[in-house]
Amino acid sequence: MLETSVSFAISFLVGLLIGIEREHSHAEGTQAIGVRTFILLALLGTLTATINQLVITVIISTFIFTIIIFGYLRSTSIQKRKIDLGITTEISASLVYCLGYMAPSANLLAVSLSALVLLVLIERQYLHKLARKKFKPHEIETTIILVIFTLGILPVLPNHTIDPWNLFNPRNFGILIVVIAAIQFAGYVLIRLFGESFGMALTGFLGGFVSSSAVFANLPHTLRSHPKVTHAVIASAILATTATLIELLLIILVASPTLLIIIIKPIFVMIIISLAISFFLLHYQKKMGHTTSPVTNPLHLLSILRTSIFIASAVVIITLAKHFVGTQGVLVISFLGGLFELQGISLATALLYLDQDLTSHFATLALYAAVLASFISKFCLLWILSPPRFALQTSLYLFLILLSGTVTYWVVH
After folding, report:
1. How far apart are CA 386 and CA 389, in angstroms?
2. At what angle do helices 342-354 and 330-338 cross, to 10 degrees?
3. Which of 131, 160, 188 is the last residue of a domain?
4. pTM greater than the 0.70 cutoff
């Protein structure tokens, strides 16, 4: 009885809130479905689900959707209006009935979806402005290309090595291309929305949770596109490193909290120092002022392909090195793995420690070796791909972060 009452209460609130929003969005008398109708539709959906009889469900659902259709026809035929009413209210009414039907079996999902529907309805003006003025045709085309490649092409690529040496996996290479392209496109969108400095910083930070190596490999393209905001580009690189270190702590926290207690202090100090450096760079960039660089191309295909091939080649070299070293050299494997995949090495080390295959001392050294390798790979990417002046500036900041962690480690241990 209590569960049923809660379901009806949820339906009532869903119908009430969405109905009030729809009432406010139309002038009085211009639409047939008001707040009372929305409440009744939600309650009727919950009642239908509670009865749970197939024939009754089909009859009531057919009746409801027929009423909604006739309500729309009536609204468009009364008087000779020259305004376009649209069908948003009618679709919302159909969704409210469905949400009411979901309430008894999936309360949380019904509430979450109703909140999403309400958000879309409330922000309709902003969404219209976003679709008509913010996004340009070539941006929409780029989004479609990314979606098609990610959902259409990537799943059908073989998820196994296809060469005699077991080095090249087409699915992994496709994922690498998608990650780099997504970072470029996300950076373009964030810069359009938030401006160059903050947009690039946010892109670096979010990209660091996916692949900080991809962010660093993409820095030359970012620098060419925005030559007047060098300090913001450096901040995006530092924030990518920050995100990687935060992700490292989160992985260790989930896999082995006791190991986290042992290694947290040096990593935490590095995170604080990197955040301080990033804020300093962004503040300095803001004080300098600059002329905004024009951003015209969401994706640079040649840059994406070049960066993907470079990272894939490095991974192949590391794979070969692992093969010759063997699995006995834990520290060597951790170092090699940390060059381009700190997250996977962190999880593997924590699980080995949890299974007592590694002592706390060796697990700590393995994690620090992986972190050191991650920084070394960033130094290499900077000096190989970026202009010398930019590489020197960014390397100095990275060295300061690494030095802070090293000093903390020696003080603690």
Report:
1. 8
2. 150
3. 131
4. no
